[in-house]
Amino acid sequence: MDPATSHPYTVAVVAPDNFALGSDAFFLGDWLIQPSIDRVTRGEESHSVPPRFMDLLVYLAKQRGQVVSKSQIVDEVWAGDIVTVGALTHAIAVLRQTLDDDAREPRYIETIPRKGYRVIADVRSADETPDPDSVEVTTRTKRGVRIVFATVLAALTTSAVWFVAVRDSDGPMSVAQTSIPSIIVLPFKNLGPPEHEYFAAGITEELTSRLASVRGLAVVSQTSASRYADTESSVHEIGQELGVDYLLEGSVRWAMGEADEEKVRITLQLIRVDNDRHMWADVYDRTLEDIFSLQTEIAEQVAERLNVELLEAERLALRV
What we know:
Distance between the termini: 18 Å
Order of helices and strands: EEEEHHHEEEHHEEHEHHEEEHH
Oligomer: single chain
Helix content: 25-40%
Structural class: alpha+beta
Number of strands: 13
């Protein structure tokens, strides 16, 4: 989508009459895709997929080998709905996680920078017998799962031994030693016209997703947080109900800058629940082109204020 000619966040179109998402089962590489029940299966693995994300997977599979732009995908899969580009990025990330795919070394869905996405795995009818390479991949995956399980089990055993040793030598462990900070991102308030409500929701979704990728933070799901949109509950009441330590809230408003450039003002507050103390507050004025980098900056600032040390891999993940 060309930012110079269209809004980089909003798409509202009607899909062609002849467009229909398939419901027949098919293989995508070594995965059996079952759109009729929103499920993907590989060997003994089986995962449910949100219906809209399944629609996305089916659409990309239909275009196997072809690069499909983000605007095309939104036009076809989210036909008639107003969505954020972040929603598409999140959907692709969920599909990759479900399919055990890696964006850096993709086997199923490849990102073509500045162009879009394409399916690179084989697509075939469920009636066809999987090729030997697929069976090989499944075998390797099962073996890998067993290795990972053994590694995790060993780590848990080591942790248990360490816990007992510390308990016996220094007495009961303090809460600070055993817990990680928990936080809820409240739905951001839209201080602009009603048609901009989608944008505030997109900012909330992206920040929640990015903070949830940090291992040193426990983040309340967006589903639970959405119940507190326009809530009259106090900070202390929300903390008591959800058992969180911190609350991040904010607002979004729009303004015209120099040369009629559209800008967004985002106001943030990070609040400690137990004493209602403001840990951090800031105001950002950015253009739409800077929104994704701003979301990364905010997530890093929150982690820093909560004394959570980010690994380099986590910093890179926040910038995806």
